[in-house]
Structures are given as C-alpha cells and as structure tokens.
C-alpha cells in the first residue's frame, strides 16, 4: 500500500486507580510480563507484549483515564512532514522531554492534544530489549484501539485528513475503521456522548492462545464483558474482558490484511457469530 508517515500503533499510557489489579490481570490471566520503571517520583508498570520495551504503561493515579496514545513514525523526515501538517491544521505540536523519550525508547518524540483532550504522541524509533521472547500465553503485541467521542467528525478529520490514515470500512450509525499499514485497522472511531477508550486489543498468535486465555479468565473470575465470537469486518476471533479501569481489553487473533485495492464499505451486522455483550452494546446498529 502507499506508505504513510505513521507506521503502526506503538503504545498506550493509562492513569489507573488500581495498579495491583491491572498487574494481576495482565500476569495471571493474560500471561503478560510486567516490569517497573521510574518517571519522576512515580513508579510505572510496563506491560511487555512483544520484544520491544513496552506497549502499555500504567501509572498510579486518583483517576482512570488515558494518558497518551503513541504512534510510531517511519523516519525523522516523516515526523517533520506530519508536524507541518498538524501545525497547518491548527494543532500545537511540542517536543517530548528527554525523560519521556528514554522511557519510550524513542530517538525523537513529539506530541499534540487531539479534539477531545487526549495527548497523542508521534515517536521515531523503538527500543528492542528482548530477544527470543518466551510467550507461553501467546501474546504477540498491541493490535488496535477504539476511541468513542461526541466529537467524531473532528477526530475523523484529524486521523483521515491530517494524519493520512485510510478508511477501511464503517457501520451505521457511527463507527469507522482506519488503517496505517496492511492490518485491517489500527484505530476505530465511534460516536458516543462522552469521550473514552472503548477497548484496546491484545494480539495473540492463534485461536488456541485465545481459547487458553478464555479458560484462564473464567478460572480467575475475570469479568468477560463480550463473549467469544468472530467479527464481520476484520474476521478476527476474540473475546473481551472488563479491565480494572472499566473499559474492555479484546483478546484476539486472525484479523485480515488489506491492500490499496480495498474499497471502503458498510459491512452491515457486527459479527459473523458470537460476541454477546454482558451489557448493552453502545454501537449496536438501529433495529429496523
């Protein structure tokens, strides 16, 4: 596909009120290793999903909220080009601190605030700190995130027009999937009354890995918020758990890749099978 400056979703930082519950969920149920690092006076938990330094950073706080969304950019030249596009669109772009670059393993780091108030980071470089990683739980990385917001049109303008993501598909009444590489989507944007992360997806290597995580979630009485199923659009097989911050983690595998010849379309119903929601689905298509 035509190259864009942003190559992939790199990391997500969260402020969390119950760090112990998060590390227990990641370790016992999902088999994800957690290390700790200092940031100022705070101790941050770093979730090791693959061979890179981290993909999920958890910082103790009095409030559960997203802290930063990090995207990996191809090169310093592309970072400069995207910075200019953001500036031209009215966004104030600042350099990350030396400490922030060091924590993320980046050689360059810039950030801006998106239309709903989230800090979005653009990073060049990743620190590969583990070789021959043993992944008994089958976790292979951070897949995608879904942002819900009442400012959907402005977020679409940011990601599609300014940051050059490609629309893959969509579903009424207001759910749009975007890609920055061959993976079906790295971000989805949804209409909602309040801004939030609806879910983060943790990639797994096979359906067996997903199934074993499902067994562990049941054994540890982790709330399964959306049952096992296969999505209609990206064909991924997954289930969702409710994490200690209140939103979902999707445990999935098998999503399709798409190329430049892909035609965006409304994919109709949400799932091939399964994915029954424990609570009301905020993105359910209206009944005819």
Automatic annotation (TrEMBL):
Domain of life: Bacteria
Key word Oxidoreductase present: yes
Domain VOC: 8-125, 141-254
Record keywords, A-Z: Aromatic hydrocarbons catabolism, Dioxygenase, Iron, Metal-binding, Oxidoreductase
UniProt entry tagged with the keyword Metal-binding: yes
GO molecular function, one term: ferrous iron binding
InterPro entries in the record: Fosfomycin_Res_Enzymes (IPR051332), Glyas_Bleomycin-R_OHBP_Dase (IPR029068), Glyas_Fos-R_dOase_dom (IPR004360), VOC_core (IPR037523), Xdiol_ring_cleave_dOase_1/2 (IPR000486)
Cofactor section: Fe(2+)
Entry similarity comment: Belongs to the extradiol ring-cleavage dioxygenase family.
Name used for this protein in its record: VOC domain-containing protein
UniProt organism field: Amycolatopsis camponoti
């Amino acid at each position: 596909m035509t190259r864009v400056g942003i190559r992939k979703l790199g990391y997500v930082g969260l402020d969390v009120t119950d760090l112990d519950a998060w590390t227990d969920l990641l370790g016992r149920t999902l088999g994800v290793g957690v290390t700790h690092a200092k940031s100022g006076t705070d101790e941050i938990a770093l979730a090791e999903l693959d061979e890179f330094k981290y993909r999920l950073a958890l910082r103790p706080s009095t409030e559960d909220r997203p802290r930063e969304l990090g995207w990996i950019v191809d090169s310093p030249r592309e970072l400069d080009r995207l910075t200019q596009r953001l500036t031209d669109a009215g966004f104030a772009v600042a350099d990350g601190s030396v400490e922030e670059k060091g924590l993320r393993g980046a050689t360059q780091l810039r950030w801006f605030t998106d239309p709903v108030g989230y800090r979005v980071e653009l990073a060049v470089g990743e620190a590969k700190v583990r070789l021959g990683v043993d992944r008994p739980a089958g976790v292979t990385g951070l897949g995608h995130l879904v942002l819900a917001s009442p400012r959907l049109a402005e977020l679409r303008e940011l990601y599609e027009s300014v940051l050059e993501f490609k629309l893959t598909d969509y579903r009424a009444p207001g759910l749009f999937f975007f890609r920055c590489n061959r993976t079906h989507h790295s971000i989805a944007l949804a209409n909602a009354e309040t801004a939030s992360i609806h879910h983060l997806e943790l990639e797994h290597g096979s359906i067996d890995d997903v199934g074993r995580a499902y067994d562990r979630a049941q054994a540890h009485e982790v709330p399964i918020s959306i049952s096992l199923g296969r999505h209609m659009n990206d064909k991924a097989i997954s289930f969702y758990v409710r994490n200690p911050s209140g939103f979902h983690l999707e445990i999935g595998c098998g999503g399709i890749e798409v190329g430049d010849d892909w035609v965006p379309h409304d994919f109709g119903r949400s799932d091939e099978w399964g994915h029954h929601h424990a609570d009301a689905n905020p993105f359910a298509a209206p009944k005819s």
